[in-house]
Each structure stands twice: as C-alpha cells, then as structure tokens.
C-alpha cells in the first residue's frame, strides 16, 4: 500500500499521523487482495455556521482504475479520520460486491458453442 499524508502543519501532529497509519493498515488488512493507493489530506477550516473544524479527505485508488473519494469535517480530527476510513471501507465493499455481480452476469467466453448436428436425411415423399 502506498500512503501519502498531507495538509496543514498545524493540523498534522504525531498522534493524527499514527491514527491515519493505523486506519490505513486496517483498510489493507480488510481487503488484502486489492492493491490500494491512498492520499489523506487534513486541514483546519472555519465555517461561519459550525465554527472551527478539521476537514479530512481520503482519496483511494483501487485496482482496475476504480477510485473512492471521501470527505468529512468534524470538531475533533480523530472523529473526522475515523469517519472517513469507515466510509471508505463501506465503499470498497460496495465496489467489490458490484464487481462480483457484474462478473456473474457476463457469460464466459471459454465455453465453445456446440456445432449443429444433422439429425436425419430429408425424405422426399412421392405419390
């Protein structure tokens, strides 16, 4: 797994980095057969309605060109990070389920069509 962590220096401290790495390990352990590349951005923002919040954005690239982007903003950074990775796990499960259903719906090309057989010779009736 490739993991890139970025964002505001004030928002990123050692505990937040450790939490992001732990959540990323959980994601990889949950889906070991998926190649995962993740980029996490943590930023502080001010919302006039909600006040100061920490925004966490997770952009995940999976195999076969699929991508998941999840954003969450909370008062506490730990809550935002947990919510983002929980939503990402849910979305990966959904994508895998859709992929399995799509594969089941496609007929396989390995079964060759049976050749037409001649069952009998045409008979000509005479009167």
Per-chain topology:
Blueprint: E1 2-7, H1 14-30, E2 37-47, E3 51-61, E4 67-74, H2 77-105
Parallel strand pairs: 1-2
Antiparallel strand pairs: 2-3, 3-4
Helix pairs in contact: 1-2
Q: Would you give an account of this structure?
A:
- The chain is of the alpha+beta class and 127 residues long.
- It has a single domain, classed as Double Stranded RNA Binding Domain, CATH 3.30.160.100.
- It contains 2 helices and 4 strands, in the order βαβββα.
- It has helices at 14-30, 77-105, and strands spanning 2-7, 37-47, 51-61, 67-74.
- A 4-stranded mixed beta sheet has the order 1-2-3-4, with helices on one face.
- Helix 1 links the parallel strand 1 and strand 2 (37-47).
- Helix 1 packs parallel to helix 2.
- The termini are far apart.
- The relative contact order is 0.14.
- The mean pLDDT is 83.
Helix proportion of residues, in percent? 25-40%
Shape type: elongated
Low-confidence stretches: none
Taking the sheet with the most strands, its summary is: 4 strands, mixed
Strand content of the residues, in percent? 25-35%
Primary descriptors:
Double Stranded RNA Binding Domain; 4-stranded mixed β-sheet; 2 helices; 4 strands; RHF-like
Could you give a short description of this structure?
The protein has 2 helices and 4 strands, in the order βαβββα. By secondary structure, the chain is α+β, with helices and mostly antiparallel strands. The radius of gyration is 26 Å and the shape is elongated.
